[in-house]
Design a protein that fits this description.
By secondary structure, the protein is of the alpha/beta class. It contains ten helices and twelve strands.
């Protein structure tokens, strides 16, 4: 089956002063099928948002190839953004910051249609807008209001409507619920799942909350310092993680039962040290400076991907992956 999105060997590098550079994303490859949710997880600073912005054209890439529905887009500049915008729409972390405070909601929802489909008639635009606000459970009366008049949850619904109005095939969700209250988070997650099923949307879902990822994702990619550590189905990754970094992330998920949490803390080792500087990362395996099983060989070269069962890729030849992880949902 041809993926709706294919990213091959994507690298994002930023030049710095004195001839230095910062590699935020290095040699990342992924595929996404129609109707699938691929979650991208990792600590803050691991390159999740940079990868997302590079895929949708908001950040330039230094190397690599991005294909949409089997074809490589060779357009440049504004034409490239328009081409990508018809296929991919971005849902941002902070809904209020993502909405222009000087525009009404109706104007905000019209803007992508005017930019991406300038030949569309006023009646056609209005029909798209009414469908989008209905899909996110808003009312026509909301169109004349301004962003500051809405709660965070309502503002995120508006952000989702703005993404939907151009009828993309892919939603790129960059921590879309992390700025919301827990009860509102569940509503937005359920809304995204319903919209995905109704419209057969593919989703790239960036999150640091692994409990949300476990509930939502079909597959999971683990990033560390802009490099892929592990890719697997959500079921496999949560029940049988192989990479030491993945295990450390899962071990950090708190359990809902205080007694179980206290017992778990006695049997797990917290991730040691801080994330290294991406300007001067460790040689060889990026994770070796914090890895409990690293040895001298890990400093020599970056480990290649080792494929396990069912497309499970692990970038660590020393990862045994024995046993299961018993974290709660």
């Amino acid at each position: 089956m041809t993926p709706i999105l294919s990213v091959k060997h994507l690298t994002v590098r930023y030049p710095l002063a004195r001839g230095q550079s910062l590699t935020a994303v290095k040699d990342v490859s992924l595929t996404l099928q129609r109707g699938e949710t691929l979650a991208i997880v990792g600590e803050s600073g691991c390159g999740k948002s940079t990868l997302a912005r590079a895929i949708c054209g908001l950040t330039g890439s230094s190397k690599g190839e991005i294909q949409l529905e089997g074809g490589t887009d060779t357009s440049k500049g504004k034409a490239k953004l328009h081409s990508i915008g018809r296929h991919i729409q971005y849902i941002f972390q902070d809904p209020l910051d993502a909405l222009n405070p000087h525009m009404t909601i109706g104007t905000i929802l019209q803007e992508p249609l005017k930019n991406l489909y300038p030949a569309m008639t006023t009646a056609e635009r209005q029909q798209r807008i009414m469908q989008a606000i209905d899909d996110v459970a808003l009312s026509p009366e909301h169109l004349s209001r301004y962003p500051h008049e809405f709660s965070g949850g309502q503002a995120q619904r508006i952000g989702i409507a703005r993404a939907l109005v151009s009828e993309p095939e892919i939603l790129l969700c960059d921590e879309p619920v992390s700025a919301l209250d827990v009860s509102i988070q569940a509503q937005i997650i359920n809304l995204l799942q319903r919209l995905q099923q109704q419209r057969q949307l593919a989703m790239l879902f960036i999150s640091h909350d692994l409990r949300v990822v476990r509930h939502l994702a079909d597959r999971v990619m683990v990033l560390y310092l802009g490099r892929v550590m592990e890719i697997a189905s959500a079921v496999t990754l949560f029940n049988k993680p192989r990479h030491p970094y993945t295990r450390a992330l899962l071990d950090a998920i708190p359990l809902s039962d205080p007694r179980q949490e206290q017992q778990r803390l006695k049997t797990t080792t917290p991730l040691r040290g801080d994330l290294p500087s991406p300007i001067a990362p460790p040689s060889g395996c990026m994770f070796r400076s914090r890895c409990p099983i690293a040895d001298n060989d890990c400093a020599q070269k970056a480990p290649p991907a080792e494929e396990k069962e069912d497309g499970h890729l692990v970038y660590c030849p020393k990862a045994a992956g024995i046993g299961s992880n018993q974290q709660e949902s």
